Amino acid sequence: MIPVLLHDILAAVAAKADPEGTTPLEPVAPTGNPAHGDYQWNFAFRLAKVRRQNPRAVAESLVAQIHHPLIQKVEVMGPGFINLYFDDAELARVLALQAATPAIGLPQIGAGQTVIIDYSSPNVAKRMHIGHMRSTHIGNALYRLHKAAGYLTIGDNHIGDWGTQFGKLIYAWNHWRDDGAYAADPIGELERLYVKFGEQGKLPENAELIVAARAETFKLQKGDPTNVGLWQQFMDVSMAEFKSVYARMGVEFDVTLGESAYKDMTDGIVERLKRDGIAEPSEGAWIVRFEDPSLKNSPVIVQKRDGASNYTTTDIAAMQYRMERWNPDRIIIVTDMRQQLVFNQLFAISRRMGVAAELVHAWFGMLVLPEGAMSTRAGNIIRLVDLFDEAVARARAIVDTRAPHLSDDERANIADAVGMGAVRYADLSQHPQTDVTFSWDKMLSFEGNTAPYLLYSHARCVTLLARAEETPDPGAIRLEHPLERELALAVLRTPEAALTALKTSRPNLLADHLYDLSNRVNRVYHDLPVLTGGEFRASRLAQLDVARQALRTGLEWLGLRVIDRM
Ligand code: ARG
Question: Which end of the chain, C or N, has fewer beta carbons within 10 A?
């Protein structure tokens, strides 16, 4: 693979120039402009700074050390940029090597390491809505990428299944439930009850509702059999709803350890925090204060005055449990941006407790509706199942007109892959840390940087290769045309793009790459003769075959279901 190979070549040169290794090897990046070579290396600037020398002179001395068959030409540009040009035959050889391996893989940077990815994590007793989508999509893509990179990967759904919402729900259940409605649509009835409590509890004349709900929560926490039974019943209904949504999304968790899993650990956690001098008393409660300037004004409560623990206490318990059970090297928690403070606090406390794992809060921006915030009361909640149904129906309408000759089953299968893929890709191709305004049209577009376009690029290669009949021969690959060369570079950049997405928690960087790769596939497909390519036929078929594999694998890393025909 080019970047890895290139990294090795340059690392050797850098090690010679900087034997103490004080200067980190600057990453090399594609130039994006053939006039400046294929890749550019900016190490000279750093090294020059350390050595207090002229960067251009340092670059010249580095260049004199670069000798490798892959590097056909190397030159210093401007104040000290090093432009690298690849040799065509060598590039073809590397691509053939890639084509001959059974699958496009990732360098196993996670071998021997464990990562926990805490994602999706909805609160129970409500249907899943589009507000739950981003954590599920991003978390699942990160999960797949870590797995591919060799990590022992644990996906954990930290559902919100404990706490004050149950007292409200139990109160509402006891006073307002409609048994007929519950029998017909259990989760729908629970949601209605929850919303009703929210509305009623707000009214000034109903102040006693809150008190009554708190009493129910208290009873539940003390193990009252009736309330525990109701809790279990609500849980079962919620889990059934979640499971069906996840099945449709192709999402599976290794463990589902919600807040309730830690309820018996929180008292011990608070004791430990007191004993270790991490928590201190404050007006009858126990709090943790921070030195760090960014957290100085944000102490956090770990035990309330009534002795109850809270969201953060539960997360500290989860942290301790995870460290003891899996001893992970990395923990990633995927939630929206509103929880940044909460996790900064949690991570700071974890450090003081001696947690050495790398802790990542992969936060993402809000999904907003064109008319503003989504709220159950405003009645503008878009349920995930409705979104999926609509997406698949729109895809189905297109498949029906474009491919009426296919069987009903096959059209349904294509519509599902395209519709579900469109939603997922529209989400993942955005920079996670920006807000996204929900739009049916954007989400379901079949043009440009969208799943339908990428899936179609892939399927078309499959069809072409099937028509060719002969087995593609990697040994036949030659890069004669600039478009072929660009395609080869894009294919070989796929693992690099995936690793960057993994390291930065930004699946959109992989999505961008796959879009670029599709464009290059389509240029070769359209602009160059393939089946009628004469002496180039075997080479181009083999190129499209390896490109198709890269596209397929990349899309699967994002969690799309890739189909061979559409
Ligand atoms: N249930 C929470 C919510 O909906 C997200 C949980 C995230 N994970 C965690 N370990 N706190 O906001």
Answer: N
